[in-house]
Amino acid sequence: MKKGWRHTCATIAFALASSAGLSGCHSVDSWDNDYYGNFDALWTILDEHYCFFEDKDVDWEQIGQKYRSEIDTEWDNRMFFDHCAAMLAELKDGHTNLISWFDVSYYNKWWSDYPQNFNLRLIEESYLDFNYSSGSGFIYKYLEDRNVGYARYASFTSGVSDSFVDMMLLTMKEADGLVLDIRDNGGGDVTNVEKLVSHFINERILGGYITHKTGPGHNEFSEPYAFYIDPASDHVRWLKPVIVLTNRSTFSAANNFVAVMRNLPNVIIMGATTGGGAGMPFSSELPCGWGVRFSASPLYDSNMVLTENGIPPTPGAEVDLDPELALNGIDTMLEEAIKVLNEFAEQNKQPEDTDVRSVLAKKE
After folding, report:
1. Among 67, 94, 150, 224, which is 20 to 30 Å from 353 by CA?
2. Sign (positive/negative) of CA torsion 301, 273, 337, 140?
3. Helices 77-89 + 60-69 axis angle, to 10
């Protein structure tokens, strides 16, 4: 199961903690512990707390009526679980899970219906020669023959320290630019988003906004609360060009990282549209003891644009992995990133020329 965000980011956590609407779980005392009671509890908890009904044009009332009418009291627990999971799948949300002692439901079509666009073995064998440094969830290497740095961050669940990022970036100080590969990164801890971004900025930036539910109505939300990211003080800050490689399996906290990075002038988002996942999670419990976890607090980018359904690449930077060329040791996405970084270095000799997106503009 893909990892979701933890409530550990200081600024976002403050916004959540300050909300009385998210201070406790839904009471289940009034629901009977039978199939109908558990179903009604599940439907109502989502009805009062889930945050994307309007954005996804979901008629939750109609869905609830349909699935409730199909309940059969002769079912066993497995059949009832699958039925409830099917109702949750109508939300098409990778952050929504029904959790029992024997299974966890998960909606995977947000990524499974798309090309994978990533092959770690291909990278390790053809570009890193199985010889690279690793730590804090990263593998990295200065590709001296191509004069670019390559760093892959597999998951935002892996803690990031300033000292580690310093060391990693210093090994690539001679490079024309950095390829930051977060393909197949399913998210994790948003604290690591802020930590990593802080090494690519030289002044405080607006990271985005968060809202929270203020009542049971589908449109009852607080005013947006802004959160900011400060540069890493007294640490290495990379202001050379950066290309962030993404695919559909770039999700949740990784999706948020893309939402922040794409607004920096020296950054290109390249590859395929991310998987989305822009809601902070909320958990509750049914009378039978099963748990339910789902998106309850929407996150927006710095332009107040919701990124729940994914973030497209920078215009002109849409690239897929060619499976035939991959058999010959060529990652077409990484190759395009290296090419753009090298072209930018050749065309722009002055240090103040930091907008690497100018290379894409010249191609159009």
Report:
1. 150
2. positive
3. 160
Residue of 117, 116, 84 lying closest to 99 (CA atoms) = 84
Q: Looking at residues 89-101, what average pLDDT do you find?
A: 97
The answer to whether 183 and 258 have CB atoms below 8 angstroms apart is: no
Task: Work out the angle between the directed axes of helices 190-197 and 253-261 (0-180°, nearest 10).
Answer: 30
Burial, 150: exposed, middle or buried (Cβ in 10 Å; 0-12, 13-18, 19+)? buried
Residues with Cβ within 8 Å of residue 18, at least 6 apart in sequence: none
Q: Output the CA torsion 311→316→319→325 (10° steps).
A: -170
Q: β-pairing, 148-153 with 133-135?
A: unpaired
Q: Is 291 helix (H, G, I), strand (E, B) or coil?
A: strand
Q: What is the pTM of this model?
A: 0.88
CB atoms within 10 A of CB 219: 8
Using alpha carbons only, what angle is made at residue 148 by residues 143 and 149, rounded to the nearest 5 degrees? 75
Closest CA to 31 of 215, 285, 294: 285
* Neighbouring residues of 231: CB distance < 8 A, sequence distance ≥ 6: 198, 199, 201, 202, 203, 204, 237
Q: DSSP E strands: which ranges in 286-357?
A: 291-300
Averaged pLDDT for residues 251-264:
97
Helix, strand, coil percent values for the chain (each to nearest 5): 30, 20, 50
* Centroid of chain to Cα 250: 6
Confidence band of 214 (pLDDT split at 50, 70, 90):
very high
C-alpha radius of gyration, the chain, whole number = 22
Between CA 115 and CA 123 the distance in angstroms is 17
CA atoms within 13 A on the CB side of 241: 33
Q: How far apart are the first and last CA of the chain?
A: 39
Helix (H, G, I), strand (E, B) or coil at 363: helix
